[in-house]
Write a structure and sequence with these properties.
Blueprint: H1 3-11, H2 22-31, E1 39-45, H3 51-59, E2 61-68, H4 71-82, E3 89-94, E4 107-112, H5 121-129, E5 132-145, H6 152-161, H7 168-177, E6 180-187, H8 190-212, H9 216-235, E7 239-248
Parallel strand pairs: 1-2, 1-4, 2-3, 4-5
Antiparallel strand pairs: 5-7, 6-7
The structure holds S-adenosylmethionine (SAM).
Length: 249
Amino acid sequence: MNEMELMMQLHRNNQRQGPGSEDTTRLVLTLAGINPEMSYKIADIGCGTGAQTITLAKTLKGDIVAVDLFEDFLERLKKNIAKEQTLASVRPLVASMDDLPFQNGTFDIIWSEGAVYNIGFRQGINYWKDFLKTGGILAVSELSWTTKERPAELEEFWTGEYSEMNTISEKIQILEEAGYKVLGHFILSDVCWIANYYEPLMDAHSAFLKRFGHHAMAHHIVETDRKEFDFYKKYKNYYSYGFYIAQKI
Ligand SMILES: C[S@@+](CC[C@H](N)C(=O)[O-])C[C@H]1O[C@@H](n2cnc3c(N)ncnc32)[C@H](O)[C@@H]1O
């Protein structure tokens, strides 16, 4: 079992696989000027078990394609969504976010919470742009520095984990260079990080180690999560997830 598969096993029973909240998803819809009376074609890329997909489907009319690399996450999404009263229809799709089977100009909204880093922010937002209609909205959350300078051990940790760690203004510049009009941005709250992500993740560790503790990689994943959580508590002034809302013009 490789690292990605072990991570999937660790995260599959949790509601979220990254920081976020229902309020955050709704705030993005407001900043994007989305009209709940209209019907939208939406792609939710790297949807995981679909926490944000469900909020979108409960709030908006239309069709949502929920894309993830892991079928198990999408199976969980199907079970979770079956318990909800939704307005939009949701179609799960197993696909890689850098090789999507969509026609150009298909979507009104491309959504992606905490997932674009898998192919890199610059590549993702450039590649996905073709799938948006003119006037369509890109809503993407991405780990970002919130200050120009930060402690060396933090910088070393996150740039080791993700080579495209940049400041918010650099992320905005990348969106502008790709030809988007940036409509807004904000950073995720502590609740998104701690109550909705790290605490449920820490709770999942013991069952995960009972089942997969014979893999050295499982211990490495748990140690890295704990370190990440400790770093977040210590250094949260220096980084967060930025949510970026942009329009294809
Ligand atoms: C940090 S999780 C975020 C999940 C969800 N959006 C959330 O916020 O709870 C990143 C997601 O990206 C998915 N993923 C990783 N690489 C992918 C790829 N190449 N194509 C599609 N999905 C991918 C993972 O399976 C995972 O569900």
